[in-house]
Inverse folding.
């Protein structure tokens, strides 16, 4: 447990007695106004408000602007900035070998959709317990603005180059492949993003969250479909989302006619107040259809798209002991002499 | 043509009084997928059970069924278990290759063949034994599929008679091979007896080859290197395995899975004290292994050339971010897809410096199944002590073929976890800096998530000793220098070579891995046939230890024998030798896809000596 300081009287602390500053990281080196920084802020808020012990968190990333951001939050957590597109495999080894850790992986649209698409789809298949965030700006920021595979057909680069290939919808892929918590949000919608992140912290399984996060330097112009103004105009929230954590012992009255409630693994609740239409995020077919329908209207639906609260996760599937594999006592991992003798006999 | 005709024809090729006991090679040529493996292993095991040293080598195609396969069994009273270049006794079951197989025999060799192939018409200087396999199988079973599978047992029966291999041992070996499948045992026994009876009635002994009981295999085991390595990994306390199937490495992880399932369940809960994940490719396999190693698991993967190439980027990350990992490379013939089912030592140079930038990695070089077992344990310890990926360079010959060995010894040394920071150490060093050389050996202290010790940020980008992002020239070169210093420390941790110095021998030989078995035989040949006494150093690891350079200093010239085209180990030696030492190095390369044999080494070494 982190017990860095005795909080000063009157200071804001969370349910495990930590101040918000404990959840911060080093100073960002991304461009001023970058959507990624807004996402970092929401991560800090969500982990603080949920009272997550930073020393029980591992944060991982691939390569790119997005992947720099784990340095900017949770400085007391072990972090791993790995190689381009291959964070899912590193995260898989880490989470499986220490099942007690809460894992958050930060990727980008190039890191996930291009070089990392292979590892991404297999991560989704396994339903590994991890919060996997794509900070999605439709371009390669760190190499100065080339298109990424989530760029929309017909959108343009600053230089005027037109994207002539259709985008990959990472949320559709994630739902199809078996992720048990799939959401889309917008870095400019702090309330919704924070609610999704807090819900993700209460879910056991792969939480794939695609967050539209405009690149102010290379992809915030008129021809872009990932700019702030375009996103604001075309975002279609599915519901007004509220999150009630298990530790807040309050009864909330809601009208079942206008609100859908989803109870998560640890007893926390997601309340979705109906907006445009009646949306049930536990219906996989509806979720996939909705993504196609909104895309055909050039809109992007945000909010919790799909959740399967009780799906078996990868750790359960592997039948692991409760204690982390990484810290098992040598007596538990080296069989005794009788075992070796028996094996040797089988070769005589 | 009758059997008697054949006997008359071949009489006089060799004096009948000559007997060659326990010193010859049998080669069985079949089609893959024909079930010959059972017959071949029964033959191998029978000879082994008679106390005669044996080695079995499978030369098989990269295919599931229908292509030629050769299995060679060598019996050697002297204990030579490397490949014998000459085939003494051919069993020609494959119509497609039979003609070429017979034509490549040395005069005086023997060919047992399927009668309709009429191979006896090909040569007059080879002893032929025709056997009507189909006819013999007819009364045994009507099931055509079974007939095809069991047919091969007939040649075991014939060989039992011709070579005096005890039928009782054949039956024992068959039971060992088939376990409790009584129906299969009965069927195979019928075929075995049919062959024996046929030989007894129709094939008078014309060849000199005989197996006689000895006592040189008592208490020993027969095992494949991949299984031996798997046992070693389990005993090393592996907790995480990430892998992707590839020939010839797959059976390592597959054996390991079987052993882990059996021996690594928590006795109280029945839950697994390990995780094995079949990854989507080799990149992911090593990525998972590094993720696991980073949190403190004893983690490993196993692959072969193409997979190792794919692991290149992650290996560099492991080196630079300093994460333990054990990687088995069961080498096969490259480049590219190459010959996936043929052996070689062709990944040495590329693996020693795998990945971009300045990288170098410890390599362990097992030459026996016993070392597959012990070096698996060494590799886990060294990788955690060094906090770096360690490669175990096996090969197809070692990994997939059957070798004799003394039963493996239970490890006596405790598991080594290397420099894990604890409260006491933290107090001593004052402040945690992940990449600070506190002890002067280049190896820093590490923490892992959840251990209650300070966290750090791991990255493949430039970093200072506190693991913070840095592009400062001083931070960068200081770190690279420390990594070089750490590699120097590796020299004190890796297994030392076996050295056999002959006082009068000015000629030295350096070899490693499975090449060793050819050297053992070649040195005897050089000594007996050419009166050339040689000194010998068998490498067990890279980086080289001081013994290697001392050895070169003591010799006038040193032949580096290895199974690749480009003298890869010699190149690594050159990088570290002084000019005088370099001038002494000569190369004997072997790259045919077949395991190297002693005779080829002898011939080439003498050619260079006399040149």
């Amino acid at each position: 447990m982190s017990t860095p300081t005795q909080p000063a009287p009157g200071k804001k602390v969370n349910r495990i007695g930590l101040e918000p500053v404990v959840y911060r990281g080093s100073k960002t080196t991304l461009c001023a106004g970058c959507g990624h920084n807004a996402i970092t802020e929401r991560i800090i808020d969500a982990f603080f408000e949920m009272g997550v012990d930073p020393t029980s968190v591992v944060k991982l990333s691939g390569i790119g602007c997005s992947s720099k951001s784990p340095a900017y939050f949770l400085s007391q957590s072990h972090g791993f900035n790995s190689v381009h597109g291959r964070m899912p495999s590193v995260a898989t080894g880490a989470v499986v070998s220490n099942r007690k850790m809460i894992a958050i992986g930060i990727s980008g649209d190039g890191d996930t959709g291009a070089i990392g698409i292979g590892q991404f789809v297999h991560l989704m298949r396994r339903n590994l317990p991890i919060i996997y965030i794509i900070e999605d700006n439709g371009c390669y920021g760190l190499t100065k603005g080339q298109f990424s595979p989530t760029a929309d057909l017909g959108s343009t680069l600053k230089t005027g180059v037109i994207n002539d290939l259709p985008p990959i919808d990472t949320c559709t892929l994630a739902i199809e492949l078996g992720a048990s918590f799939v959401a889309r949000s917008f870095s400019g919608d702090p309330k919704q993003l924070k609610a999704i992140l807090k819900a993700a912290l209460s879910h056991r399984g792969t939480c794939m969250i695609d967050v539209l996060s405009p690149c102010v330097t290379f992809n915030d112009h008129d021809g872009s479909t990932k700019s702030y103004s375009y996103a604001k105009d075309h975002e279609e929230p599915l519901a007004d989302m509220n999150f009630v954590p298990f530790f807040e012992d309050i009864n909330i009255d809601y009208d079942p006619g206008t609100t859908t409630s989803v109870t998560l693994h640890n007893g926390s609740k997601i309340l979705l107040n109906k907006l445009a239409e009646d949306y049930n995020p536990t219906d996989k077919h509806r979720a996939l259809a909705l993504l196609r329908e909104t895309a055909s209207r050039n809109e992007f639906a945000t909010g919790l798209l799909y959740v399967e609260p009780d799906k078996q996760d990868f750790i359960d599937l592997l039948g692991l002991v409760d204690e982390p594999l990484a810290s098992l006592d040598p007596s538990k991992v080296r069989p005794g002499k009788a075992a070796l003798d028996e094996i040797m006999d089988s070769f005589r | 043509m009758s059997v008697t005709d054949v006997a008359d024809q071949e009489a006089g090729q060799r004096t009948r009084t000559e007997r060659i006991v326990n010193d010859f090679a049998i080669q069985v040529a079949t089609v893959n997928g024909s079930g010959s493996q059972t017959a071949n292993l029964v033959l191998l095991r029978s000879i082994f059970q008679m106390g005669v040293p044996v080695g079995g080598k499978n030369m098989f195609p990269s295919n599931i069924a229908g292509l030629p396969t050769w299995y060679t069994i060598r019996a050697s009273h002297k204990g030579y278990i490397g490949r014998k270049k000459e085939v003494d006794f051919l069993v020609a079951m494959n119509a497609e290759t039979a003609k070429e197989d017979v034509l490549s025999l040395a005069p005086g060799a023997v060919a047992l063949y399927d009668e309709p192939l009429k191979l006896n018409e090909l040569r007059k200087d080879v002893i032929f034994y025709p056997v009507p396999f189909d006819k013999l199988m007819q009364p045994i079973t009507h099931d055509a599929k079974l007939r095809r599978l069991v047919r091969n047992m007939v040649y075991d029966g014939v060989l039992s008679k011709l070579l005096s291999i005890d039928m009782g041992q054949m039956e024992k070996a068959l039971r060992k091979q088939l376990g409790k499948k009584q129906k299969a045992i009965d069927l195979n026994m019928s075929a075995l007896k049919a062959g024996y009876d046929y030989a007894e009635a129709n094939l008078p002994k014309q060849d000199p080859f005989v197996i006689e009981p000895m006592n040189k295999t008592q208490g020993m085991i027969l095992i494949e290197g991949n299984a031996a390595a798997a046992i070693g990994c389990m005993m090393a306390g592996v907790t995480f395995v990430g892998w992707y199937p590839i020939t010839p490495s797959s059976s390592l992880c597959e054996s390991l899975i079987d052993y882990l399932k059996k021996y690594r369940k928590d006795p109280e809960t029945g839950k697994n004290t390990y995780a094995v994940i079949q990854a989507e490719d080799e990149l992911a396999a090593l990525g998972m292994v590094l993720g696991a190693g980073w949190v403190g698991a004893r983690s490993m993967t196993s692959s072969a050339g193409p997979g190792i190439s794919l692991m290149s980027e992650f290996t560099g990350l492991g080196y630079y971010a300093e994460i333990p990992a054990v990687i088995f490379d069961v080498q096969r013939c490259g480049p590219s897809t190459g010959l996936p089912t043929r052996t070689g030592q062709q990944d040495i140079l590329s693996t020693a410096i795998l990945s971009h930038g300045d990288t170098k990695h410890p390599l362990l070089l097992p030459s026996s199944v016993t070392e597959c077992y012990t070096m698996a344990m060494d590799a886990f310890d060294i990788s955690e002590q060094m906090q770096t990926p360690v490669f175990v360079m096996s090969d197809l010959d070692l990994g997939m073929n059957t070798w004799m060995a003394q039963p493996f010894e239970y490890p006596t040394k405790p598991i080594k976890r290397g420099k894990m920071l604890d409260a006491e150490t933290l107090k001593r060093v004052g402040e945690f800096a992940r990449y600070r050389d506190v002890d002067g050996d280049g190896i820093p202290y590490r923490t892992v998530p959840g251990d209650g010790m300070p966290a750090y940020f791991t990255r493949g980008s430039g970093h200072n000793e506190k693991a913070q992002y840095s592009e400062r020239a001083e931070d960068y070169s200081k770190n690279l220098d420390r990594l070089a210093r750490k590699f120097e420390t590796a020299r004190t941790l890796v297994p030392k070579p076996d050295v056999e110095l002959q006082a009068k021998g000015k000629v030295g030989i350096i070899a490693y891995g499975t090449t060793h078995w050819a050297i053992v035989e070649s040195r005897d040949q050089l000594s007996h046939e050419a009166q050339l006494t040689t000194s010998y150093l068998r490498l067990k690891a890279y980086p080289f230890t001081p013994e290697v350079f001392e050895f070169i200093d003591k010799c006038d010239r040193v032949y580096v024998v290895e199974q690749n085209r480009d003298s890869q180990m010699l190149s690594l030696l050159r990088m570290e030798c002084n000019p005088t030492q370099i001038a002494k190095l000569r190369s004997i390369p072997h790259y045919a896809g077949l395991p190297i044999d002693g005779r080829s080494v002898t011939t080439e070494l003498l050619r260079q000596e006399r040149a």
Observations:
- Chain A has a mean pLDDT of 93.
- The longest helix of chain A spans residues 35-49.
- Chain A touches chain B through 55 residues (CB under 8 Å).
